[in-house]
């Protein structure tokens, strides 16, 4: 059984027992979270899509704040003395899928 769930504007294909990094959620380590925005469910080869889906994805937060790789944005205009350097690290939450119920 697998499901496609929408978390913080992104879609993820999940199964029970999967661990994944999702955009930062405001939850603490060990908290249980539920995602009700399930777009598709496949159970024993039968697909449920759209308004037919009545399932909820339940997950546990393993690590509430994980930082991604550093990304550097650099701009320069030649012969003008213009240089601009910005950087950031995207924040994620590490979750484990407990059940699709």
Automatic annotation (TrEMBL):
Record Pfam families: Ribosomal_L21p
Its biological purpose: This protein binds to 23S rRNA in the presence of protein L20.
Alphabetical list of NCBIfam families matching this protein: L21
Domain of life of the organism encoding this protein: Bacteria
HAMAP family: Ribosomal_bL21
GO cellular component terms attached to this protein's record: cytoplasm; ribonucleoprotein complex; ribosome
Record keyword Ribosomal protein present: yes
Organism: Arachidicoccus rhizosphaerae
InterPro entries: bL21-like (IPR028909), bL21-like_sf (IPR036164), Ribosomal_bL21 (IPR001787), Ribosomal_bL21_CS (IPR018258)
Protein's UniProt name: Large ribosomal subunit protein bL21
An example molecular function term from Gene Ontology annotations: structural constituent of ribosome
Keywords: Ribonucleoprotein, Ribosomal protein, RNA-binding, rRNA-binding
Statement: the UniProt record of this protein carries the keyword RNA-binding: yes
Subunit structure: Part of the 50S ribosomal subunit. Contacts protein L20.
Similarity field: Belongs to the bacterial ribosomal protein bL21 family.
Coiled-coil parts of chain: none
GO biological process: translation
